[in-house]
Amino acid sequence: MITSTPEARSTREEQARTLAAQVVVLLDNLDGLGIGVTAGQLHTPAGVIRRQGDHGWTVTTR
């Protein structure tokens, strides 16, 4: 675990949320190809990326 100031940690957490949102877009794009449905969930520092039925993917905080 990296130790630093609260401000630095907050910055890294925001970066993690941004990256998780980019993963959601990629997963939605993969599903949009129509060659199979991506399933499951991914646990990240930003939260959990989950498939929401027919509504695509979302990031939920822990």
Helix/strand structural class: alpha+beta
Number of strands: 3
The quaternary state of the protein chains shown equals single chain
Lateral strand order in the biggest sheet: 1-2-3
As for the number of domains, it is 1
Major pleated sheet: 3 strands, antiparallel
3D shape: elongated
Average pLDDT score? 86
Structure in words:
The protein has one helix spanning 6-32, and strands spanning 41-44, 47-51, 57-60. The chain is of the alpha+beta class and 62 residues long. It has one domain (6-60). Strand 1 and strand 2 form a beta hairpin. It is elongated. The mean pLDDT is 86.
Structural descriptors:
3 strands, alpha+beta, 44% helix, 62 residues, elongated, 1 helix
Question: Quick recap of the structure?
Answer:
The chain is built from 1 helix and 3 strands, in the order H-E-E-E. By secondary structure, it is an alpha+beta fold. Strand 2 and strand 3 form a beta hairpin.
